[in-house]
Riboflavin synthase
Amino acid sequence: MFTGLVETTGTVEGFTPINGGARLTLIIPFGHELSLGDSVAVNGCCLTVDALDGERVSFDLLSQTLRVTSLGNLQPGGLVNLERAMSAMDRFGGHFVMGHVDNTGTITALEPVGQDHRLEVRIPDELARYCIDKGSITIDGISLTIANLNGSLLEFWITPHTFGRTNLQRAVPGQPVNLEVDMLAKYVEKLFASRGNTRISF
């Protein structure tokens, strides 16, 4: 499990398609601290370490992962957000993040406003029902608070700390981003559905 508090960014060294999947190799600052089999959230997608060589870390991507996420768009030299799975002794910040991407959205605006940045992301209509004003959603692995909700268009305010620590520093309008909605909203929907309500509104 993760928190959506990005530790640092890594750099894409290679992306090689293999039998419908792919091999992703990153340069990760904390690569020396990883072990084979460790979980790392890469742009919000939970991946398993498959090979290690110092800061060079490789992951195997399934075809399903490429279908659901934006990882197939990665190019050498690109920045990715990184977070290791939390330990039992960690303080819990952000919100509950599983690293299981629900779908992708699209950045529609990213502009500086004073020392901050205003970010707009359009998400698929079927995910909008899980979002509430001032609720949480994960964008490329970043736990963000929804500042304004207008249907499937979400607005966020990005602090200088978050902007400088994540891949948002290179983001541009039109770019796809990975989305994971709040898992608690999905559990509530499932609970109500089991009681005979096929759909609820948030």
